[in-house]
Design goal:
This protein is α+β, with helices and mostly antiparallel strands and 120 residues long. It has one domain. 22% of the residues lie in helices and 27% in strands. It is flat. The termini are far apart. The relative contact order is 0.22.
Length: 120
């Protein structure tokens, strides 16, 4: 497969219709000014790498890994869910910054009971 493979599908592989549900919904939102003009709407967008996670962990930072991305939508003619866009590209392994997750309401209540005189 080519390193920079990219293919878009403009019509349904089952019935040939070019009407897609979320694409039309997105166009309506854009017309009403409720979505940015550069946004694209799809049922699902997936991306990642095709690699064993244990091997990925051992790769040095900056290594190139084959990756993929695809977008799906629903045909308004027959209801078929199909890929509208498929892309393959090499991705560089990066250091992921740690995510700080704020405490949920239940955790804040527990903290308030344990430390009732905290300054926050």
């Amino acid at each position: 497969m080519e390193k920079d493979f990219h293919k878009e599908f403009s019509n349904c592989p089952s019935c040939g219709s070019e009407d897609r549900f979320l694409e039309q919904l997105g166009n309506e939102l854009k017309e009403r000014g409720l979505a940015r003009p550069e946004w694209s709407f799809h049922m699902d967008v997936r991306q990642g790498v095709v690699l064993d996670p244990t091997k990925e962990a051992a790769l040095p930072i900056g290594s190139e890994i084959p990756g993929y991305a695809f977008k799906t939508d629903i045909c308004m003619g027959c209801g078929c869910i199909y890929a509208t866009d498929i892309t393959r590209a090499d991705l560089k392994k990066q250091v992921m910054p740690p995510q700080i997750i704020p405490p949920n309401r239940a955790q804040r209540r527990r903290d308030a009971r344990e430390f009732p005189f905290s300054s926050s």
